[in-house]
Design goal:
The protein is mostly beta strands and about 300 residues long. The protein has helices spanning about 155-165, 170, 270-275, 280-295; strands at about 45, 50-55, 60, 65, 95, 100-105, 105-115, 125-135, 140-150, 175-185, 190-200, 205-210, 215-225, 230-235, 240-245, 255-260, 260-270, 305.
Length: about 300
Amino acid sequence: MTATNHQKETNYYPFGLAQKGYNNLTTSLGSAGAKKYQYNGKELQDDYGLDWYDYGARFYDVGLGRFFTIDPLAKKYVFQSLYVYAANDPIRFIDENGKGPLDNLITNFVIYLVTKTAPSFNNFWNKEASYMSQTYDINGNYHSGNAYSAATHGMTANKIITDFSETVKPITDNIDVTMSLGKEVYVTKNIKIGIEGEYGFLSGDKNLSASLPYDIAGMNVSADKDNNMKVSGTVLNQSTTIAGSNNSKEYDNKISIPLGPANINVKANFAKMKQQLSSPEYKKTMKEVKNSYKGGGKELEWKDLNN
């Protein structure tokens, strides 16, 4: 391309002000033949020496680096001036038509997943993922990029479920939801016996008791989840074991919801729960669980694609 094919050469400061002293190249016909579409391809309005650029929605003054009227999309940009050009960052942003800034960088993400083992429920988590981010300018030229990869080797569904169970064990061990059903039976016209049965849905404990009025005396038969039975008696609120033993749990708090003749009970032993959570055995188990994941996965690996 020869010099006679150039109509004009102009160098600009970031906000559009033309640099002086070396922008003298014009057509062979003189400066009258130079294009009026200059900075960012916008038409220069040089009548009366204004030197404004017509951006469509507004006129722009390169000397001030500001528009003369309010941005039509001002409600979207309440964090900045209503007259600002290209978010005050003309290196990164452009103002295409006077209606707010347009980011000059466009980021594209490419994500793919590689399965390391045959897909099944037990090894569903045993996968490796790689991610890549590439940035291009508005003309499609490559600008920058980076990538990283991560994996969950060894983190099987069974392991996660087991570790979760160990984590909440002090809670599940000391809470129960039961259903109880009671009835009063008259032995004679003036004497009645209270009979109550209860079943624990979480603990598996069973309990059957009978008592005389005013807690004068009573008898209790209980069984744990393994059906080990224990028989105890009560006289004037003093309890004693008559036969057998079991691992039925004890609770220090209870909330009952009446449902007709039956009750739904939520029981908890907060004292024992707190004791288990602070015990050295529990802390050791939690440390082992935490450490088991450090080597089970592959740590993030960042790669600068520019290097």
